[in-house]
Write a structure and sequence with these properties.
Blueprint: E1 14-19, E2 23-24, E3 30-31, H1 37-49, E4 55-58, H2 62-76, H3 79-83, H4 85-91, E5 94-97, H5 100-104, E6 110-113, E7 123-124, E8 136-140, E9 156-158, H6 172-184
Bound molecules: S-adenosylmethionine.
Length: about 190
């Protein structure tokens, strides 16, 4: 690992969740979004790159869960993993769960929500997590963002990633990569 990354052995454990329900639509109403294949691969690859995991995909629908199972089966047990053992390793971090609460049953995570426009609550810089004991669960939304009113109360919201252009919202994949890079660099 190069010297720009935390070398200390006690790098806090960071897990990541991508929530598809409960999220809000452009009218601020409760909705559910579909899981996209690119999110499955990119979240797994980016988390593997920054030594983060597990990667929780939150969706209550059985059809969506079986789609993720099919994708993972192909790479974990099928021809994909034979051809590309690296991807098999990466996708082994995927955990398909019904609700965010299911992830909290895995570990005593400190819970951090993210948004381009967080509600005016406690906000922490992502770098703060380096000095806090983990494990941490960083939660990303889809659609128009997390419906925090229907999610467990977080330890806080992470300060949004500020741009310099007119657009404030990143793709969720870009937001993941930027947060993890900032957290892992010294
Ligand atoms: N506009 C909504 C929002 O920011 O919550 C959704 C935007 S995007 C499609 C979905 C997710 O990407 C967000 O829920 C958040 O997790 C992440 N995201 C996007 N832009 C971000 C930013 N500038 N800062 C922090 N997180 C961001």
């Amino acid at each position: 690992m190069s010297s720009v990354f935390n070398l200390s052995a006690d790098v806090p454990d960071i897990a990541v969740a991508l929530v598809h329900h409960p999220v809000v639509n452009r009218l601020g109403e409760l909705t559910t979004t579909a899981i996209t294949t690119i999110d499955v691969h990119d979240f797994a690859r980016t988390c593997a790159f920054y030594d983060a995991g597990p990667v929780y995909l939150v969706h209550p629908a059985a059809g969506m869960q079986s789609m993720v199972q099919d994708i993972c089966d192909y790479w974990l047990h099928g021809a994909g993993g034979v051809r590309n053992p690296g991807r098999r390793e990466v996708l082994s971090a995927i955990r398909m769960i019904d609700t965010l609460e299911d992830a909290l049953a895995d570990a005593d995570y400190r819970l951090w929500y993210t948004s381009a426009a967080p509600p005016g609550e406690v906000m922490n810089a992502i770098e703060d997590l380096r000095d806090m004991p983990g494990p941490h669960l960083i939660v990303f939304g889809t659609g128009w963002g997390l419906d925090a009113s229907r999610l467990p109360p977080p330890n806080g919201w992470l300060r949004p990633i500020e741009g310099i252009g007119k657009v404030r919202h990143l793709s969720v994949r870009a937001a993941l990569a930027i947060y993890l890079d900032r957290c892992r660099r010294q």
